[in-house]
Design goal:
Layout lengths: L1 E5 L9 H16 L6 E6 L12 E5 L2 H20 L1 H9 L5 H7 L5 E3 L12 E5 L3 H4 L11 H15 L2 E4 L2 H11 L6 E3 L16 H7 L6 E5 L8 H15 L4 E5 L6 H11 L5 E5 L3 H10 L2 E4 L8 H9 L3 E4 L4 H5 L4 E3 L4 H13 L1 H17 L2 H19 L7
Parallel strand pairs: 1-2, 1-4, 2-3, 4-5, 5-6, 6-7, 8-9, 8-11, 9-10, 11-12, 12-13
Helix pairs in contact: 1-16, 2-3, 9-10, 9-14, 12-15
C-alpha cells in the first residue's frame, strides 16, 4: 500500500512533540528497507532520505501554499481572538483547506499521523492520543482559555470516532478514550512512548565544561519542561525550600525549556521563596547538553500534573539519572518501579523523595538500574514495527475498494 506519513512544522523549541516525531521518523528511515509498503514522507521541508530506505519517498509540501496558509491562519486567529462570533464560527465551520486537498491529491491508501494533528479524515488513518487533559483537568488555562477547550473537544470528538486505529500509551488512556468518546477498544492499540535514542549518548568528556557554561553547581535537581502552569514548577520550588528546612539539604534547581507564558511567574516565585541564587534558567538547550544535565543531576524531578505519556522520565532513565515523578493516572504503567512516584500536590512528599535519593546510595543504584532496564525495553524501532503491523493488519480491508495495491 501507499502510506502517507505527515510530518508537522514543529521546531526543536516545541519540546517533546518534536522529539517524538523526529525519533519516529529516524526509526522509519532505519527500517525503510525492510517494509512491504511504500511510505511517502509528506513534509513541509526537504528531508534527505537514506538510500538504503528504498521503500521511502519524499513529498514536499509546496512552499508557496505554506506561506499563503500561514497568512490565512494568522487572519483566522486574529478574528477568533477579537470577536465572539469568530469563536463560534471557528467551532461550527467545516474547513476543507488547501492542505487537505493536497493530501487527497497524493493518492495515498492510508495515512499515519505521528502526532495528534489530523488534516483529513477522508482517507483511512492512524492517529495518536497523548492526553485528554482538557477533559480531566479543564481548569488549567492552557487547555481552557481562548476557546482552547472547545477546539480540543471538537478535534477529538470528530477524529477519534473516525480513526481506523488510535494509538494510546496506556490502558488508562484507552479507558479514557472509551469513556469520553465511546470508541470501541478494538480500534485502539496500546503503544507506550519509545525512549529517544539521543538519550543513550555516552559521555564525551565535556560534562564539567557544559555545566560551567550555565553556572550549574552540584548537587542539583533537574526539571526539563516548558513553562506551562501544569508543569508545576511552583510545586518543585516549594519542595526545594522544604528540603532545606526539614532535612537540612540545599540543592540547586535547573529548569530548561521554552517559555509558554509562565516563566516570569516562576522567576517571581524563586524570589518570594528566597532561592533565586540556587535556580538556573538555561532556556532551550541542545540534546547533547540535555543529556549532560541528566547525567550529572541528583535526580530528574518531573512533577507535572499532566501525563503519564512524558518523554523526559524515559530520557532520564537512559542517561542513568534517578527519577522523581508525579503519580498521575497511568504513571505506574509507564514508569513501573523505576521511579519514585509522588503526589504533585504534596510538596513535602516531593522533598522527601529527593532526600531519599540523596541519602540512600542503595536506593539510588536500584533506581538507576531499573531505569536503564525500562529505557531499553521499548525504543523507536519497536514503536515503528508495531505501527507497520497495524498497517499490515488493515491491508486486506483496504483492498476492498479502489487503490490499496
Amino acid at each position: 500500500m501507499n502510506v502517507g506519513v505527515l510530518l508537522s512544522e514543529m521546531t526543536p523549541e516545541t519540546g517533546g512533540g518534536y522529539t517524538f516525531e523526529r525519533e519516529v521518523f529516524a526509526a522509519l528511515c532505519r527500517l525503510g528497507g525492510d517494509v512491504r509498503h511504500t511510505f511517502h514522507i509528506i513534509s513541509p521541508h526537504a528531508i534527505p532520505l537514506p538510500p538504503e530506505a528504498r521503500h521511502l519517498r519524499l513529498i514536499e509540501i509546496p512552499r508557496q501554499r505554506r506561506f499563503v496558509e500561514r497568512l490565512r491562519n494568522a487572519a483566522r486567529k486574529t478574528y477568533r481572538f477579537l470577536t465572539k462570533s469568530g469563536r463560534r464560527e471557528l467551532r461550527r465551520a467545516k474547513k476543507v483547506g488547501w492542505r487537505e486537498r493536497f493530501l487527497l491529491s497524493c493518492g495515498m491508501d492510508m495515512l499515519w499521523y505521528p502526532t495528534p494533528s489530523v488534516v483529513t479524515m477522508e482517507i483511512p488513518f492512524i492517529t495518536v492520543v497523548w492526553d485528554l487533559q482538557h477533559r480531566l483537568q479543564p481548569y488549567f488555562p492552557e487547555v481552557s482559555l481562548n476557546a482552547e477547550w472547545d477546539l480540543r473537544e471538537r478535534h477529538y470528538a470528530q477524529v477519534l470516532r473516525r480513526a481506523t486505529y488510535i494509538v494510546t500509551g496506556t490502558e488508562v488512556g484507552k479507558r479514557e478514550i472509551e469513556r469520553f468518546y465511546g470508541v470501541p477498544g478494538e480500534r485502539m492499540q496500546i503503544l507506550p512512548h519509545p525512549t529517544p535514542e539521543f538519550a543513550f549518548e555516552p559521555p564525551q568528556g565535556d560534562d564539567d565544561a557544559v555545566l560551567a557554561r550555565y553556572d550549574i553547581r552540584r548537587p542539583y535537581v533537574f526539571y526539563p519542561a516548558q513553562f506551562w502552569p501544569h508543569k508545576n514548577h511552583i510545586g518543585l520550588l516549594e519542595a526545594v525550600r522544604l528540603l532545606e528546612s526539614r532535612h537540612g539539604l540545599k540543592v540547586d534547581v535547573v529548569l530548561v525549556g521554552s517559555d509558554k507564558g509562565n516563566r516570569s511567574f516562576v522567576e517571581q516565585a524563586t524570589a518570594r521563596l528566597g532561592i533565586t541564587d540556587r535556580v538556573r534558567f538555561p532556556g532551550f538547550v541542545s540534546q547533547h547538553e540535555l543529556v549532560v544535565f541528566y547525567r550529572n543531576a541528583l535526580a530528574t524531578t518531573y512533577v507535572t500534573y499532566f501525563g503519564p505519556e512524558n518523554l523526559p522520565p524515559l530520557e532520564s532513565f537512559a542517561a542513568g539519572c534517578p527519577v522523581v515523578a508525579s503519580d498521575v493516572s497511568g504513571s505506574e504503567e509507564q514508569l513501573g518501579d523505576a521511579a519514585l512516584r509522588v503526589d504533585p500536590r504534596d510538596h513535602a512528599a516531593i522533598a522527601d523523595a529527593i532526600f531519599r535519593v540523596h541519602s540512600d546510595a542503595a536506593l539510588r543504584t536500584t533506581l538507576v538500574d531499573r531505569g536503564r532496564a525500562r529505557a531499553t525495553r521499548f525504543r523507536p524501532d519497536d514503536f515503528v514495527r508495531e505501527i507497520v503491523g497495524m498497517i499490515d493488519e488493515f491491508e486486506p480491508v483496504r483492498k476492498c475498494w479502489h487503490g490499496g495495491d
